[in-house]
Specification:
Shape: globular
Order of helices and strands: EEEEEEEEHEHEEEEEEHEHEEHEH
Structural class: alpha+beta
Number of strands: 19
Strand content: 25-35%
Radius of gyration: 18 Å
Length: about 280
């Protein structure tokens, strides 16, 4: 991939329903000028919200960004596809309370962005990890290390039938599309039933989520370790909230959106402090 910045040649639009609300949802991803970064517009007359950790307002079932009374849920799959395919600058216009879930993965987003990528005549300015930093919560950890490129290593250990899984990759557009983007969001059948009873997960179905019953998945797996690949997808999307394409190695152990948000906020603070000291 060129080290120059990229945007999109044309507007790319996605329509569907939100995973958690079941409400109609759409996003239009528009080209943006060099150094603009990734920015959300929340509704036709809503505020502009930069894709940065400071604007995360909830992480209970997804990553939610917001400003004032306007929020947008489940931004992680879209952001994952943008940052992994190399889109540095874009305006994301959202209608509805969530980003559409589509098939539960990032593949539809990533394929569309790959086909619309446009190089810009300005050098990319990545978010560089200058020194090792670790963040923890209980047994969960996120560790950021200096590296020459963008790498992720993810370890999970869920109750059966998922169990312990491991995945590591360098984040590049082609390998992301082949090895990470198609991994679907997942859950356990008893959790899904409880969410539905509580009026949640209204947009979820076997067409857009990987559901595990006690004896195994209700639909065929795309990989034996599809769960940890989806966790890598989520991690990449949450790391987009650093405000630029990351350059570093990120090791995530039993982590989730809440710890990812804490880590990205902490890394942004550390970067400002490091720059001030340097």
């Amino acid at each position: 991939m060129s080290e120059r910045q990229h945007t999109l040649r044309d507007v790319v639009e996605f329509n569907g329903v939100g995973l958690h609300t079941g409400a109609a949802a759409s996003v239009r991803v528009r080209p943006a000028s060099p150094n603009a970064g990734l920015t959300f517009r929340l509704g036709a007359d809503g505020p502009l919200v930069p894709a940065r950790a400071e604007y995360v307002v909830d992480t209970r079932r997804a990553t939610v960004i917001g400003a004032g009374e306007r929020t947008l849920s489940t931004v992680e799959h879209l952001l994952s596809a943008l940052i992994a395919t190399g889109v540095d600058n874009a305006l994301i216009e959202a209608e509805g309370p969530e980003v559409p879930v589509l098939d539960g993965s990032a593949e539809p987003f990533a394929a569309a962005f790959r086909d619309a990528l446009l190089e810009q005549a300005v050098e990319r300015r990545p978010f560089v990890i200058e020194r090792p930093v670790a963040f923890g919560e209980g047994e969960a950890r996120v560790i950021a290390l200096p590296a020459d490129d963008f790498r992720v290593t993810v370890c999970v250990d869920f109750e059966p039938p998922v169990g312990a899984q491991f995945f590591a990759a360098t984040v590049a557009a082609r390998s992301y599309l082949d090895e990470i983007a198609p991994a679907r969001t997942f859950g356990y059948l008893h959790e899904v039933e409880a969410l539905l009873a509580a009026g949640l997960a209204r947009g979820g179905s076997l067409d857009n989520a990987l559901v595990f019953a006690p004896d195994g998945p209700l639909t065929p797996l795309r990989w034996p370790n599809e769960v940890v690949r989806h966790k890598a997808l989520d991690l990449i999307g949450d790391l987009a909230l650093l405000g630029a394409r990351p350059q570093g190695e990120f090791i995530a152990i039993k982590s989730g959106h809440r710890l990812h948000a804490a880590a990205t906020r902490g890394l942004r603070v550390n970067a400002r402090s490091f720059a001030a000291l340097g």
